[in-house]
Amino acid sequence: MIRPEVGTWREEGTVLGKISFNGTVHNWAARSGGLNDVVIADRKIIDTITLEHCPDVRQQVLDALDIPDLASGLAGFN
Q1: What is the reported pLDDT for 50?
Q2: What digits encode the pLDDT tens for the residues 27-68?
Q3: Is 54 exposed, middle or buried, given 0-12, 13-18 or 19+ CB atoms closer than 10 A?
Q4: How far apart are CA 50 and CA 66, in angstroms?
Q5: Where are the alpha helices (H) located in 1-78, listed in sequence order?
Q6: What is the pLDDT of residue 76?
Q7: Which of 68, 67, 50, 56 is nearest to 10 (CA)?
Q8: Cα(64)–Cα(69) distance, integer angstroms
Q9: Which pLDDT does position 75 carry in this prediction?
Q10: Residue 78: pLDDT above 60?
Q11: Which of 6, 8, 2 is nearest to 63 (CA)?
Q12: How far is the C-alpha of 8 from the C-alpha of 19, rounded, in Å?
């Protein structure tokens, strides 16, 4: 779900990109058995999952959103 959005986030800039990233993460969590509570409780799980399954996409998101890790891009949970 992340791969097709990276270019858009890059074009939108870091502020709007992070908002869209949050929506995508929570959409994924909802579609994956309602894991939104898990993501909220442990936002680093997004880094763990993407490092294992799609590290190249993870790096593209880090670059596009100018963040050190994906957990840092999740709004309201810092």
Answers
A1: 95
A2: 999 999 988 889 989 999 999 999 999 999 999 999 999 999
A3: middle
A4: 17
A5: 6-12, 14-31, 36-41, 45-53, 55-65
A6: 59
A7: 67
A8: 12
A9: 75
A10: no
A11: 6
A12: 12
Residue pair 60/5 in contact (Cβ under 8 Å)? The answer is no
pTM of the prediction?
0.89
- The stretch 8-27 carries a mean pLDDT of 95
- Two structure tokens written together for 10: 């890059």
**Cα separation, 74 vs 43, whole angstroms:** 7
Q: How far is the C-alpha of 53 from the C-alpha of 73, rounded, in Å?
A: 19
Per-residue CA distances from 3 to 37, 55, 57, 59 (Å):
23, 11, 6, 11
Q: Which residue has the tokens 């992340």?
A: 2
End-to-end CA, the chain: 23
Residue with tokens 């993407």: 50
